[in-house]
Amino acid sequence: IFLALINAIDGPTKRLSSRQYSFTYRSENHDHCVKIINFRCNFKAYCLFSFLNTIIYCIPAGWIWGEHGFLKKLGAVDIAGSGAVHLIGGSAALASALMLGPRLGRYDKGIGPLPLGNPVNAVMGLFVLWWGWLAFNSGSTYGLSGAKWHYAARAAVMTMMSTFGGGTVSILYTMVKLQGKIDALDIINGILGSLVAITGGCFLYRGWEALLIGTIGALLTCSAMPLFDLAGIDDPVGASAVHGVGGIWGVLAVGLFADNPAPLDTTNGRCGLFKGGGWYLLGIQALTVVCLLTWGLVTTSLLLWAINKVITIRMEVHVELLGADLTEHLVKHGNVNVVGVSRAVSALTSAIDTSEISRLHNIGLNPAHNKQIQMIGDMKNKKRLRLPAIFKEIIRNRDLGINNAKKLIPRRKKKANLDTTGNFVVKKRPPSSTVPEDNKVLNIAWVN
Predict the structure, then answer these.
(1) Can you name the residues that pair with 240 across neighbouring β-strands?
(2) Looking at the structure, do residues 347 and 269 belong to the same domain, yes or no?
(3) What is the pLDDT of residues 14-44, one digit of tens each?
(4) What is the 3-state secondary structure (H, E, C) of 93-140?
(5) DSSP state, 333?
(6) At what angle do helices 367-382 and 387-396 cross, to 10 degrees?
(7) What subcellular compartments does it reside in (predicted)?
(8) pLDDT by residue (tens digit) across 175-187?
(9) Nearest to residue 373, comparing CAs of 320, 329, 409, 328?
């Protein structure tokens, strides 16, 4: 809107195409942060972060693509954004995960990945991204005139070649990891990691090089995901691994394999290390990685810290337990059991206003949310007396999660009472007990 008001979107076609791509890259960069803060970020804080996050992308993008950018003057190459878009987004996502902390109960039962909420939608999302990546990379020539059409077509083909390698190694990785089984999440993120890796030099490579770059990118991505979980960094969709680790490899790969496309002179006459170009281009690409990674981590941390002073960035406990769809957006998923929702809401009725939730209709499907709701509803029935104490522990130390908080609450001991006839009265007891006393063993029979 601001650019339209100052007539900044009027001008030569080349400038318009550049600005349109900048808008698209900005949206893509922000999407990486959004995915990682799912399930636990306050919606109002998220909206403010979305607006201010533009600063985090625009400044380093100017370093690489701007006319006076210091990295551009040094000779850094990043054709379609392995560094400026994906590495910045991945590092910002990592900082966001560190600032927000893990979801409640995420690591109660180990570091293994949680099941996908909807695997079909996840795979469909992969195909949408895959198709869009062809436009991203081939459109980075900003036209088809002269020799540009040749390199636009080359970018599209090399993009597909990288995913062939990435997809193959992802399948092999998950089969080894799961002893013959195939995990959809590993394959999805492996292919995305190969796409991120090829983006930095999409028309600077030969076919076998693109295949190798995609293979290494996918392997690094799949290997990094469990390492983040091992460190207690809760990344619901693997954005830090896909865009952060994949982006680092994509920027460095240019310094190793790049050819100089003579008509476009994209690399300023330089070639990669394996093409006889020496160490200079690889050194500049490594410097680019350090600058972008540092910028993304530091600025995102400072931005979230500042926002937290105005609006608490973490959801309230009851909102996170019931899910923001239900409590903030009034969306009740179609497969959620009505009785289960009622029980879960009843368990938290002292903390929230349930009047709006009770009138909601079912929309869409979300098995993961259904499981969470069912767990809270079961707690209402089985641990009615212990429920307030459990939630107090969660509120006091939100990193515990539900299962660990339950372990800290001592179970109520059943007391044996005497009735008017002197007999013991208990609800549950064994038929008899043995008690040692003065070197003797007394056998006590329990009677009503």
Answers:
(1) none
(2) no
(3) 555 555 556 565 566 566 677 777 778 888 9
(4) HHHHHHHHCCCCCCCCCCCCCCCCCCHHHHHHHHHHHHHHHHHHHHHH
(5) -
(6) 130
(7) Membrane
(8) 999 999 999 999 9
(9) 320
